[in-house]
Each structure stands twice: as structure tokens, then as C-alpha cells.
């Protein structure tokens, strides 16, 4: 049974790190005493050590010990034996490249489908899709494949932004870029706005938080799934 939270972001404007998610996280990891943190996305080039310390400060409030995956001599065994797993945000290309380098993608898929509670924010959410092809991140490294864990039957666009009719920016909107993706790829895409997250409980996937989720499917108009409702592809 899958027990997964996939959040668009770790931090809302003006708030502390993970603050808006703390009630959901507390319940999600209520049986977890030691949490495995995957720091490989390294936001802003942050070191693995500093990133893990940042996470530990938050989880101190929940009396949960955090260990970074970089600390283990055998990362594969650490994933297989983890009580719970959190993958933080940053650069998805860097994260996926490191997971492939350490041959961890199959193990992550296995433990997630076997019920190990998992939290992902931003890049950590992106990797739970079928591929990472709908990330907003720059390709600063070249992973062996865009294929990711496939813990959910769609791709994610974290930090989804709606088109602004009054904006003078002439570049493509997120919606336009997702439509470009669907010219060549069939998997659905879920646009997750800031402050929203998904919960996956076995086969039930539900939207939570301050905003609806925007759903994109190939050759169809996008539509909204309200917060509190299940994701159903029409």
C-alpha cells in the first residue's frame, strides 16, 4: 500500500521551511522514529550536510531523527531498510542523475509500493512521476534517463503557475510548455500550485491544500480537480 505525500514546494512565501506541511507530515510519519533524507537535489548548491541539518531542525519538533542518505556506506541498504523517506527539492536533473549513479531508482520504487511512507517536495515530488520531463529545472547535469520512479501514473509540474493576462513577459507559460510536452508524450501531467500537495493512499490520490490541481491530458482541454477531491482522469 502506497503512503505518499507529494508537495509542490517545501516553503511558502513568508513562512518557515515545511511549516505549512507540518500537520500532514506529523500524521504521515507518526510511526517513524528515524527518517531517511535524500539531499541530492542540493538547492542553490547547498551541501548534503547543511541540507540534512536544515531538515533535522524541522523534524526535531516531531521527535524524529533524520539521517542523510549520503551518510551511509551502503545507500541501497539504507533505502531498503528505511522507516520513512523524505526527498527534498532543488534541481531534478541533479537528483535523478545521482539516483541513477547509485542505482537507487528500482529500490525506491519497491519500497514505496510496499508501503514505506514517503514525502517529496518539488524535485522530490517530480521523481515520483513516470518521467521527470515536466520539471521546470535547468539541465545542469545529464542523467542516463528521464525515466523516474513511477509511483504515480502521471507526471508532475511542481510550482505550477497560471497564465497572467496582465503580464508583459513574452515567454511561454507553464500551460504552453506542458502542451508542447503532450505533442510528443502521452502521460498525463498534474500541475501543482504553491501550497498544494497530493496524498497517495494505495490507489486513492487526493488533492490537498490551498489550491486546486490543474490536470493536463494529451489532445484534451485541461481541467481542475478541487482541493479535497480525488484525481480522476477524464
At the fold tier of CATH, the topology name is: Rossmann fold
CATH architectural designation: 3-Layer(aba) Sandwich
Integer-rounded radius of gyration: 17 Å
Order of helices and strands: EHEHEHEHHEHEHEEEEE
Descriptive report:
There is one protein chain. With 234 residues, this protein is an alpha/beta fold. The protein has a single domain, classed as 3-Layer(aba) Sandwich (Rossmann fold). It is 25% helix and 20% strand. The chain has 7 helices and 11 strands. It has helices at 22-28, 48-59, 75-81, 92-101, 105-113, 123-126, 174-182, and strands at 3-7, 34-38, 65-68, 85-87, 118-121, 155-157, 189-191, 196-201, 204-209, 213-216, 223-225. The strands form 2 sheets. Strands 3-2-4-5-1-8-9 form a 7-stranded mixed β-sheet. Helix 2 (48-59) links the parallel strand 2 and strand 3 (65-68).
Please give a quick description of this structure.
This protein has 234 residues and is an alpha/beta fold.
How is this fold's topology laid out?
Elements: E1 3-7, H1 22-28, E2 34-38, H2 48-59, E3 65-68, H3 75-81, E4 85-87, H4 92-101, H5 105-113, E5 118-121, H6 123-126, E6 155-157, H7 174-182, E7 189-191, E8 196-201, E9 204-209, E10 213-216, E11 223-225
List key phrases describing it:
single chain; 234 residues; alpha/beta; Rossmann fold; 7-stranded mixed β-sheet; 4-stranded mixed β-sheet; 25% helix
